[in-house]
TrEMBL record:
Active-site residues (renumbered): 161, 212 (proton donor), 307
Source organism of this protein record: Candidatus Sungiibacteriota bacterium
This protein's name: UDP-N-acetylenolpyruvoylglucosamine reductase
Gene3D superfamilies per UniProt: 3.30.465.10, UDP-N-acetylenolpyruvoylglucosamine reductase, C-terminal domain (3.90.78.10), Uridine Diphospho-n-acetylenolpyruvylglucosamine Reductase, domain 2 (3.30.43.10)
Keyword annotations from UniProtKB, A to Z: Cell cycle, Cell division, Cell shape, Cell wall biogenesis/degradation, Cytoplasm, FAD, Flavoprotein, NADP, Oxidoreductase, Peptidoglycan synthesis
């Protein structure tokens, strides 16, 4: 039987260390406990939100009027060249377990601060790799019917930081099965060290931050006319070999690095990281997000789209 707590402060459960109280809160260490939490929310006629590692989210100062399910599932199994991991497994641990089994191809994921479930939901990526590149299938729980089933990766409608799980809220990720391959694990570990060095040099590692605030600006976005953009801003040509224009570049070009609102600052290292300097509020983050969007729109005519997820707003 799950233990339901009342009035739990959410800030300590997030990377940002920002957020008010949840009306109800549980920790789900198994998929069965997760299902129990969903049933509890239905019985109480309240919404629920599944919180993984607490990265990539901004919780409202007023908290969450419903049930927060803190996902703590932690199972990882290896079968041949396939690794299956529960939704609550940190991506860095998945990488570690894969290498321990002599499997490579997912080293890039060490740069993702979140869990398997959140990474699948957002098709997370880093260092040129994305979840969809290595995902075979996903075990899901349909809260509307109570059914559990597997979806092949091709059924998940993956796009840039998008998936079916963002569009169909009733589908919850239980686990993911990844297809990797045997390889040179020594070389893979060397790549891990290189990735760590690159992150340390360019990102606000160790700070209270939710990770990237905004999505990069895809060349394929309907509102992006690449010919007109390149004619007006030739500097964007350096990103033609990438899927899009880095949001951090646009924020930097708008001279916003180091900009501060209250206790929140745009990192002087990386323009897409907004750092809690201590005692920050969600309201301050929202104001700074608005400033960044306004300045980039006025300078480039481009709309920045949030990558972070709002909770309780």
């Amino acid at each position: 039987m799950i233990s339901v707590e009342k009035g739990v402060r959410l800030a300590p459960h997030t990377y940002y260390n920002i957020g008010g109280l949840a009306d109800y809160f549980i920790e789900a260490k198994t998929n069965e406990e997760l299902c129990d939490g969903v049933r509890f929310s239905k019985d109480q006629s309240i919404p629920f939100f599944i919180l993984g590692a607490g990265s990539n989210v901004l919780v409202a100062d007023g908290g969450y009027r419903g049930l927060i399910i803190r996902l703590k599932t932690a199972e990882v199994t290896v079968s041949g060249e396939h690794v299956t991991a529960s939704a609550g497994v940190p991506m860095a641990l998945l990488v570690q377990r894969a290498l321990a089994a002599g499997l490579v191809g997912i080293e890039w994921a060490v740069g993702i601060p979140g869990t398997v479930g959140g990474s699948i939901r957002g098709n997370a990526g880093c260092f040129g790799g994305e979840v969809k590149d290595v995902l075979e299938r996903v075990e899901v729980y349909d809260t509307s019917s109570g059914d559990r089933r597997w979806l092949n990766a091709g059924e998940c409608d993956f796009g840039y930081r998008e998936s079916i799980f963002k569009k169909r809220k009733e589908l919850i990720v239980f686990s993911g099965e990844f297809r990797l391959h045997s390889g040179d694990t020594d070389s893979a570990r060397t790549r891990l060290k290189e990735y760590a060095a690159r992150r340390s040099a360019s990102q606000a590692i160790g700070s209270k931050s939710a990770g990237c605030i905004f999505k990069n600006i895809s060349w394929r976005r309907p509102d992006v006319n690449s010919d007109q953009l390149l004619a007006r801003f030739p500097s964007f040509r350096q990103f033609l070999d990438l899927p899009g224009i880095p949001a951090s570049y646009c924020i930097d070009a708008a001279n916003l690095k180091g900009t501060r609102v209250g206790h929140v600052q745009i990192s002087p290292k990386h323009g897409n990281y907004f750092v809690n300097l201590g005692g920050a509020t969600a309201e301050e983050v929202i104001i700074l997000i608005g400033i960044a969007k306004d300045h980039v729109r006025r300078k480039f005519g481009l709309l920045l789209e949030e990558e972070i997820q709002y909770v309780g707003f």
